[in-house]
Amino acid sequence: MIKNLSTFIILFLILCHGLAEARQEIVVIQSIKVKPYEEAIEGFKSVCNAKIKRLVVSELEGANVEKRINEIRPDMVLAVGMEALSRVKRIKNIPVVYLMVLNAQSILSGENITGVSINISQEKQLTTLSKVLPDIKNIGLLYNPDGTGYLAKKAQAAAKKIGIKLIAKEVYNAREVPSLIMNMKGKIDLFWMLPDLTVITPETVEFLFLFSLENRIPILTFSEKYVELGALMSIGIDPFDIGSQAGEMANKILSGRDVKSVQRVDARKAVVSINLKVAKKLGITIDEKIIENARIIE
Question: CA-to-CA distance for 113 and 98, rounded, in angstroms?
Fold first, then answer.
């Protein structure tokens, strides 16, 4: 009996070893080593059990990333960040899943690519905003059609659906921003700051926050760093959860699903940050239940 038991244990260990060796491999191409990316990768690993090999673009000193991937011949590529995605977009014979990318569609072409953007859907943002500030009815927004035009369109559709009036103006040069914002005075209850490089410069941000305080018009933004600088609130992302989303996608593809059937999606979890000092200056009272579930900056 002992002999049979020993034989069973040996066979079991051999089987486990074989299964471990048979695990599928994913090459992670990471733009740089920063905390949000590291959190996203941890979220990915918490869901997907494949073998992981990491390549950091900033440490490769000009090496051909595509060539390195083809030499490794992984079952999948995980691209973390815009720079990483741009380095692997020409790969056609390996599934690619991306994450921590805002405007992925601007550089995508292959049917073998899917992933999770760092955008919280505009409808979700407005729904969340309405819970925090239920009296907001008129929102101002500036955007460069070449940069965040697609976000502005989504915002307009979401606002119409929810019953909020959105005053959206196109801008092509940062110098136009102050006058366009001033023209919104008396017409808007809140300004919605999109991640638009034309709209957001050190000078325009400073002007925005001054405009906000002088006219008691709160600012909704996409990043907690702007809440620390003077915006009332942000609706941002949870990198770990985005990683989990990407891991769920990877599992489907590695189990045999066609990449084309795994749709690209927005981040599903919204993280609300609120600056209570700014709220007080603007004469805004935030419900205690909202405060309990938000990141508070004072």
Answer: 8
CATH number for the segment(s) 24-118+239-269:
3.40.50.2300
What stretches of 1-75 adopt beta strand conformation (E)? 25-30, 51-56
Topology agreement, domain 24-118+239-269 and domain 122-237+271-297? yes
Dist. CA 208–CA 162, nearest whole Å: 26
CA-based R_g, the chain, Å: 23
Q: Which whole-number Å values give the CA distances from 54 to 50, 99, 268, in the listed order? A: 12, 15, 25
How does pLDDT run across 165-177, given as a tens digit for each residue?
999 999 999 999 9
Q: CB 48: neighbour CB atoms within 10 A?
A: 23
* Domain covering 122-237+271-297 in this structure, CATH number: 3.40.50.2300
DSSP 8-state class, residue 116: E
For 218, the token pair is 């709160």
Is the pLDDT at 99 greater than 90? The verdict is yes
Domain residue spans of the chain: 24-118+239-269, 122-237+271-297
Instruction: For the chain, give the percent of residues with pLDDT over 70.
Output: 90
Are 50 and 24 in contact, with CB atoms under 8 Å apart? yes
**Could you tell me the pTM of the whole model?**
0.81
